[in-house]
């Protein structure tokens, strides 16, 4: 009976482990760097150099020009994933601006290519 239980537990572990390995998330304690695409979109890189696109509910004023940001999560542990409803805090002359997160998704090479093409097109437009 113990052998059957051990084999069942081992099989369950083997089935779940690949799913967990492929589902990386952005952890507050693992944020390495960030870049603002505009006042509502950040590309955040973690310590493992995985990139995430973070969309904000409202525009954070002049986000591209801030040298420091903070991420405020509402979970009890630094190991939890940053998620929808958490906040990006950016400093302003009158105090921190709270910018709620609406979406976090892995930033793929295709997304990066599309964002670069859109930025190049915007630069080429006459003002």
Average pLDDT level: 81
Low-confidence segments: 3-22
Structural domain tally = 1
Could you tell me the number of beta strands?
6
What is the global morphology? globular
Short description:
The chain is of the alpha+beta class and 127 residues long.
Features:
six-stranded antiparallel β-sheet, globular, 2 helices, alpha+beta, 6 strands, 127 residues
Task: Summarize the structure in words.
Strands 1-2-3-6-5-4 form a six-stranded antiparallel β-sheet, with no helix packed on it. The protein is built from two helices and six strands, in the order αββββββα. It has one domain (28-124). The relative contact order is 0.15. The model is unreliable at 3-22 (pLDDT under 50). A hairpin with a 2-residue loop joins β1 (31-38) and β2 (41-46). It starts with a helix and ends with a helix. With 127 residues, it is of the alpha+beta class. The protein has helices at residues 2-22, 109-124, and strands at 31-38, 41-46, 51-56, 69-72, 87-92, 95-106.
């Amino acid at each position: 009976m113990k052998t059957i239980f051990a084999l069942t537990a081992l099989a369950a572990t083997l089935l779940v482990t690949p799913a967990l390995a492929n589902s990386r998330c952005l952890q507050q304690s693992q944020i390495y760097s960030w870049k603002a695409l505009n006042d509502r979109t950040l590309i955040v890189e973690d310590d493992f150099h995985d990139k995430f696109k973070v969309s904000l509910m409202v525009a954070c004023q002049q986000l591209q020009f801030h040298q420091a940001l903070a991420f405020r999560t509402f979970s009890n542990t630094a190991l939890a994933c940053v998620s929808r409803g958490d906040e990006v805090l950016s400093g302003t002359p009158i105090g921190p601006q709270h910018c709620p997160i609406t979406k976090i998704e892995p930033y793929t090479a295709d997304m990066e290519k599309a964002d670069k093409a859109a930025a190049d097109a915007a630069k080429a437009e006459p003002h």
